[in-house]
Amino acid sequence: METAFGGSNSYQAFKAEGHRIALSRDLAMVMKWSKKLLSNNPVELQQASAVCYAISDVNPNLFQPFTADIITVIRKNVHDAGPRFGFRVLSEMNIQGEHLGEIIDVSFEALTKKSNPIAVKVFAMAVIGNHLGQFPDLGIELAAILKEDLPNSSAGYRSRAKKIIKKHNLSV
């Protein structure tokens, strides 16, 4: 079975490439790797995610022009690395405009899907939490989900949920 990392494909090499791209603010390379996130090949998607993670660690807003692609990556869900990266970068970006409603919808879908990995749920929760100031009515829906999920959740999920609950004074 082909793997994303190993041999000449070290995770560190992909991470270094992402760091270089972020520091140079090379939008052409951000676009190149963002398009690779759309691959149906799980190995290519994981490698692109490694590069994009490193870019977003330095400057997540470099992905603003590629918001529609990020939503597509999340919805396609070829490999968990795609939605994990997508929600992570969306949780760090200043999201405005035409995609905001769809992003919040897909975040609620991911948060409530029982089979999703914890990291995907935690980042989706963060995306929703980031917009509760703009849309306080979403807090009622988020609080209901958290109330149901908190008793049997992981430490990471509980930690993020408690931060959001406290910050937005949600009744759980």
Supply the key terms.
172 residues; mainly alpha; globular
Topology:
Layout: H1 11-24, H2 27-36, H3 42-58, H4 67-76, H5 81-92, H6 100-112, H7 118-130, H8 138-149, H9 155-168
Task: Walk me through this protein's architecture.
- This protein is mainly alpha-helical and 172 residues long.
- The protein has 2 domains: 72 residues, no CATH class; 78 residues.
- Helices cover 67% and strands 0% of the residues.
- It has 9 helices and no strands.
- α5 runs parallel beside α7.
- The longest helix is centred in the N-terminal third of the chain and has 17 residues.
- It is globular.
Fraction of residues in β-strands: under 5%
Total separate domains: 2
Radius of gyration: 16 Å
The secondary-structure element order is HHHHHHHHH
- Oligomeric state as shown: single chain
